[in-house]
Design a protein that fits this description.
- By secondary structure, the chain is mainly alpha-helical.
- The protein has one domain.
- The chain contains 13 helices and no strands.
């Protein structure tokens, strides 16, 4: 296992190159180009800000920012998981012709979307200041929260990317599951709208402490709930360990299955 990580480290430049290539090519040929990184979440923010508070009568102070600081990490989550699921199949030509640690492919997808989220923080901080939110020193905990989300996403992505090589229906299943998952995570509404018993069940969702932590450090100016966040971290670590085990076992037949 140690040799596997050493080999992965030795190919770090390849990982960086793939992430750079993906970032450059994502909006290549587009008139607005990189601005779509900001436009897409802003359009979603506009739609949700109209639908939920006005049509569903959700009462939440500064609802736009309540939604926005949770929506961006959710987009990071879904785009990473969905993109990483098909990453091995999508890189079939590379997998068949060149030797490299195949784990680089799902990692590069998550890494690319991580960079997109970091770029999106520019508009997040600007929007928070414009809406009168006072940032505190607790915003310094943001990298810790982001690291925990990254570990959780990576663990899930590694598992799905390995399984998809054999089970192609997985792409559609992931799409349905993430759609349902969105409404089981307090992104467009606070978890307090649920009865206590249901809220306690929803809290088992590892994305709940992560989303709440983003709100705590950015919107509320307080520290994350460390005990809840530790729960998400532990699940992420378990998923990553299991994912690497499944991936290493599966990658031996990737070329044949592709």
């Amino acid at each position: 296992m140690l040799n596997y990580f050493k080999e992965l480290f030795n190919f770090r430049q390849m990982l960086v190159s793939i992430v750079r290539r993906d970032l450059r090519s994502r909006y290549k040929g587009s008139f607005l180009g990189f601005l779509w990184t900001f436009i897409n979440p802003l359009l979603q923010l506009l739609v949700y800000s109209i639908v939920f508070p006005y049509l569903l009568r959700i009462e939440q102070e500064n609802y736009a920012m309540f939604l926005f600081v949770a929506l961006l990490p959710w987009i990071f989550f879904t785009t990473s998981v969905q993109g990483a699921t098909t990453s091995i199949v999508g890189g079939a030509n590379l997998v068949k012709k060149v030797y490299f640690p195949r784990l680089i492919l799902p990692i590069s997808v998550v890494g690319t979307n991580l960079m997109n989220y970091i770029y999106g923080l520019v508009i997040t901080f600007a929007a928070l200041l414009l809406t009168g939110v006072h940032l505190t020193f607790n915003v310094l905990w943001l990298p810790v929260v982001l690291l925990i989300e990254f570990i959780f996403i990576l663990g899930l992505s590694v598992i799905l990317s390995a399984l998809y090589v054999k089970f192609r229906d997985l792409e559609h299943i992931v799409g349905v599951v993430t759609f349902v998952w969105f409404y089981l995570t307090p992104i467009v509404f606070p978890i307090t709208i649920f009865p206590e018993r249901i809220a306690s069940i929803i809290s088992l969702n590892p994305m709940v402490p992560i989303i709440n932590s983003f709100r705590n450090v950015l919107l509320n100016g307080v520290q994350p709930d460390w005990s809840a966040l530790l729960y998400s971290l532990l699940i992420g670590i378990v998923l990553l360990i299991v994912g690497i085990f499944i991936f290493r076992k599966s990658e031996k037949t990737f070329a044949e299955d592709l």
